[in-house]
Structures are given as C-alpha cells and as structure tokens.
Amino acid sequence: MIHLKISELGGKTVIELNEADLAKLGGAIGDTVKLDESAIEILSSESETERQLAVVREVMVDYRETLDALAR
Q1: What is the number of structural domains in the chain?
Q2: What angle in degrees, to the nearest 10, is found between the helix axes of 64-71 and 48-62?
Q3: Are the C-beta atoms of 45 and 31 separated by less than 8 Å?
Q4: What is the pTM of this model?
C-alpha cells in the first residue's frame, strides 16, 4: 500500500510521497499525476507533444535546404 501525506509548503497544499513509493508508481520528480475516483495516471514531464516537437525540430535542421526550396 502506498501512503500519501497532505501538508502545506510555502503557502501551497502539497501531497507528499516517499521516493520508494514514487519508484513503485514509475514516476519521477516533475511528472504530472492525474487522479480520478478509480485510477491514478502519471504523465511524464516530457509530454508526447514535446517529444513530437523535438523530432520535427530535428527534421527541420536536417532538411533545411529542402524545406527552403519547397517554401518558394
């Protein structure tokens, strides 16, 4: 069982989770946690959109001349 502690830190309400329990959930510092009544989902701090944008940026660098020619 995973235990969470609700506390206040710097004027904000926070939910504390020890490192061992965080590892059990497959999470890391900076990730986002989505909760509903029946499930917990941990979203990586690097979202799918950010990964896709990184790929597009790499393609744009690799094919800059081709893209410039197509833009004319």
Answers
A1: 1
A2: 80
A3: yes
A4: 0.46
3-state DSSP call for residue 13? strand
pLDDT at position 7 is: 94
Residue span of the structural domain in which 61 resides: 5-71
Of all residues in the chain, the percent with pLDDT exceeding 90 is 31
**Neighbour-count burial for 28-45, b at 16+ CB within 10 Å, e otherwise:** eeeeeeeeeeeeeeeeee
Residue 18: how many other CB atoms lie within 10 Å: 12
Any idea what the CATH number is for the domain that residue 59 is in? 2.10.260
pLDDT in tens, 37-48: 887 677 666 667
